[in-house]
Design a protein that fits this description.
Helix content: 25-40%
Distance between the termini: 40 Å
Number of helices: 3
Strand content: 5-15%
Order of helices and strands: HEEHH
Structural class: alpha+beta
Number of strands: 2
Shape: elongated
Strand order of the largest sheet: 1-2
Length: 89
Amino acid sequence: METTKLSSKGQVVLPKAVRESQGWAAGTEFVVEPMPDGVLLRAVKPFATTQLETVFGSLARRGRARTVAEMDDGIRAAVARRHRRATAR
């Protein structure tokens, strides 16, 4: 278990092993939640969690609706393009 100290300015340094294991880089923002025996730090997510019902249909689209088969074909094509770019490096 790692330990750290509270500075006179109220700052706490998170040990490097902890930061790396969580993927936290400099500038990561946290929500600080008081708990009965301390505090809980949660990294702020870049986007708020949403429900499908609140965003469904929010993007304007012209033309006929695509079929499931057409959407599957589009996904396959995009994956193939991405795979070709990744292997070309």
